[in-house]
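Reopening this one. Same input as before:
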Amino acid sequence: MSSSSPSQSSEKYAFITGAGSGIGAEVAKRLDRAGYSLIISGSNPSKLNVLAESLVSTPIITVADLSQQEDVERLAKQLKNELPALAIAFINAGTVEIGSFAERNSEIIDREIDINLRSTLHLIQACIPGMQQQKSGHIIATSSIGGIFAMRGSSVYSATKFALRGFLSALQQELLPDGIKVSGIYPGAIDTPMLRYEALNGGSPLNFLHEPKTVADVGKSFMRTLKTGRLETFVPYSDSISARLIGMVPWIIPKLLPYLEKSGEKGRRKFIASHQLVNNDKLA
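Same output, byte for byte:
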């Protein structure tokens, strides 16, 4: 956390997790240009510093590894007791592990649940009291089309995102009397370090049925969500239609999968070639 504490003023503060790259960094830049004071969080201080240098205003930086319970507890305590009340809480950090669930070890399973779900719930809970006191605020979390349509090879990821969708729906109902908005952003395939990792390390070919969208596309959708307050925003919307339709008849998925994966595999090869990707066997 930065050494200077924020003054209590009319400034509008936005808190962003997973801010070091991808969607988080894109949203941070858009909110900075819109006049918000930022509190940016991530596990890589170097990336957060690079982001900070690109912003108009100097952000508060909070370094936290959300797979570590003590880091989550420390960050939650700061949000409750030390940091200013928030206009926006963008809970965006996430990770994905690729491979058969039967072959996962418990540490990998727990890490994915901790980052994608457990830390999300604890941090959102820590943001609520300040918003309740001021009778306003907007909680926005990054979910995934994978929270509507499950893909083999990413079973734990899908489990966390399905759970997050239900949580956000219930939370919206609970916080409505307090004047607090709750929204989820549901990206399909977005050209981020995570997707590039999946492309090279056995991620689902279904990610590449269509050309992936960009973080700028998600950033635009985020800003629209701020205005509309909609519970669910899909990027792109067309992906959500097919995902929701198939989700209504899950028994048909094994029959469709071979055809969809064959088409997606062509898209994956095209994506790798067009971006000249090289497998370094780790998620950047």
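So the earlier flakiness isn't reproducible anymore. For the record, Residues 1-8 have pLDDT under 50 and may be disordered.
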